[in-house]
């Protein structure tokens, strides 16, 4: 069973994906970490975020076993990730890795932006998890504050809106709900309510 979970930043998809993976005993890949790793490496090596060939080379050299989720979740990395993710050559370098993960025997849970549309259109279960920009900004703000990053709610909201626009507007694998994905709007739900709703949707699809 492949479970594909897509949605915008801070929609709750990551938590839902992790819990579904634990619940069903499936391996889980947070595909945003791949783009974040490329963005972080580009920032560290001072690679221009418009230099598609150089960024694709970084993506090709990525060691998926060496991803450090803690470091990659920093605010500045998300913006760089979204920029590198708009480049077709970067996405192409990360495609096989994700498809191989999805198609391993026994199944998998993947979350990202294009799992149900591009990476695993054949997935048995697809969820599109979303929430209002304001709700997502409040969550991300609390998360960043918890990490000791001091940033205003307005700045977080502006970053979320910019990323939404870039992720949804790009020509290559844009963020879009697959026609056969169940919609889960978590605006007025806490984490446990979101999880219960997701589990009910998955149960209905299986
Ligand atoms: O989900 P997360 O916020 O960690 O993703 C960081 C960025 O990586 C997103 O803003 C998006 O541009 C990109 N991404 C993507 N396709 C995916 C996962 C993430 O383009 N499957």
TrEMBL record:
GO terms for cellular component: cytoplasm. Residues 3-200 form the Cytidylate kinase domain. It is an enzyme of class 2 (transferase). Its main location: cytoplasm. InterPro entries: Cytidylate_kin, Cytidylate_kinase_dom, P-loop_NTPase. Its EC number is 2.7.4.25. It catalyses: dCMP + ATP = dCDP + ADP; CMP + ATP = CDP + ADP. NCBIfam families: cmk. This is Cytidylate kinase. It comes from Ancylobacter rudongensis.
